[in-house]
Amino acid sequence: MNTEETLEHQWKAKRMLKNAFLQERISHAYLFEGPSGTGKLACAKAFAKTLFCLQPIAGEACNQCLECRKFDNENQPDLRYIVPEGQSIKIDQIRQLQRDLSYRTTASSRMIYIIEQADKMTVQAANSLLKFLEEPVSPVVAILITSNSQAILPTIRSRTMSVPFVPLSPDLMLEQLVERGASPTLARAAVQLSSGLDGAWAILEKNGFAEIRTLVIQLGKESITTYTAAMLTASQKLFKGEYADQIDLVMQLLLLWFKDMTQFQAGRQENLVFIDQLEWISAHAFSRSFAGWVSCMEHVLEADKRIKANVTPQLSIEQLLVKLQEG
What we know:
Radius of gyration: 25 Å
Largest sheet: 5 strands, parallel
Structural class: alpha/beta
Distance between the termini: 42 Å
CATH topology of the largest domain: Rossmann fold
Shape: elongated
Number of helices: 16
Helix content: 55-70%
Number of strands: 5
Order of helices and strands: HHEHHEHEHEHEHHHHHHHHH
Number of domains: 2
CATH class of the largest domain: Alpha Beta
């Protein structure tokens, strides 16, 4: 799946921006918000290109005029990108942006600035930008991009037009991850653990992800068949082993393991996350009722909640394994 297909999935955002353009109701500031990997930056660039275009066609850039060619060649003098320097966007960056905007090519020319990871602005930078948004300079257009809109100052959010980007479907994410070279088997799990492509890719690149998945498969099987074996596995590889700091990921995957049992019972084999374990799942999925597997999922969620409440992980998981054995 290419960038164009990713944006096609964001038809609501595209329609909102196209209608604003066609109705000549361009806002002075937009907030593109949604999970990472949902095409926010690509959409921001496409919208900016349309705003610069001299001969737009049906609300989209013509891709032929001088301004479009400047944009494609990254030679558009009236476009600015702001990205974090290190861990944050600093006040000096916003001040420099304001200086640049004050010296735009002509008083009537449109200038556009795109702030990536806008949630990474320091308090000082955010307050400086806020003053600029409160007194917009026409025709300047701001596009703020974030995967964490709650980290944006409420006063900034109130002065921007929200353009929501929805998570990609698991099937689309899986397709693109495989195109990037990810293992299809591992990618099926990653897409269930993240709402965006970037997040899923980060999970796949996590050290030991494949081994943690294998550990969960072992725990999932042993937890309903051999309690002592499950306890030994947890003790050796989880409590004191190399994956002791990955318990959160283990719990998330274990939840998906039991969910697969319900998927198989419901006849939705194509939705299995642990598709490589189909033979084992088919042999054991009906060893418990549908409600029984749902109870297993609830036990996992309860244990995860206890761990997050600072209950000792070892104690929480030992209690979980007892409950899973009992059914």
